[in-house]
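Handoff note, outgoing to incoming analyst
You'll be picking up this chain. Sequence as last confirmed:
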Amino acid sequence: MDVGTVIWVGAGVLMGVFLWKTGIGMLRSLTTPLPPPPPTGELRKVNMRYRCGVCGVELKLTMAPDEDPPPPRHCLEDMDIIAPIYD
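Most recent structure output, in case you need it:
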């Protein structure tokens, strides 16, 4: 056996171990259960701005029961989301 063959076999074994560990890690991440939802009535911090498309009034939403709340209504229309604010 020459040195080149030993290097190729060693590299193949290392790549196989790496692929095996990566695959097992990905499968385990798919089987991890989701965290339980927060208690009812608990608010989350959000930072979103909305603008009414009819009259132009703007609204900043800082707390909501969901991380992605539905848009509020104004002038009988859903408000448009503006880019989030970064404080």
